[in-house]
User: What shape does this take?
Amino acid sequence: MTKNEATFYLTQHDYLNDLSEIDGQLLRLKKICEKWDKENFIYDLPEFFKEYRESFSIYIGLFCKQRDKLSQWRAYCPQGGISIGINREAIQDSDVFINLCSYYDEEIFEDLKQAEQEYLKERSRYPADAETLPFAIISPLLRSLLTIKNPHFHEEEIRLIKVISQADENIRFRISDNKIIPYIEYKLPVESVQEIFIEPSLEHNKTKFMRDIKRFCKQKGITPDISCSDIPLRVAY
Assistant: This one.
């Protein structure tokens, strides 16, 4: 974080925690899409997605709907940490979309029906034989496809998704658990950070941590709401 920007890492879709993130969810999607008639483009969405991935890379930032969720603290802050609340309206890029994840087949089915209507509304503005379509038209379909999650990973997750060319020079790499992980940086105005929430712990000196967080924010010129979790979780240090 600088005085002007807050930088978030978006990870390539293939490297998320769920090992079935791609292939497993495509199988689920195929079964759901078979509810549509074979003449409907929704029926062929799984194949469309496979072909799309050959030319483009999908990068995802993971957020949670709840600021103070026990499973998130346990999974991502085993040694302590903070959660950051951002202003969703600060995300204005036309090639980025945000969506709440769907975990159960009924949710996915309803989300696909909505995506279908959005797509058809936009598609009607272009010739029927058009070979290429603007990203904004297919984004409702991609949004639906890329927010399907295994119900075992139910975390009320919200995804920020950006699709780029595989040859994009902005792709970076980091090391995690002896693996090379592709990622890209996504920058927002530093003012978009509106809340900082301190992890739950009975042992941690929250007064000192709160003071240090306030000093950090003052240096960056931001004034987010700063508060502490009241979950009685013991965190090992």
User: Anything to note?
Assistant: The first strand starts at residue 5 and ends at 12. The mean pLDDT is 81. The longest helix spans residues 105-123. The CA atoms of residues 123 and 134 lie 10 Å apart.
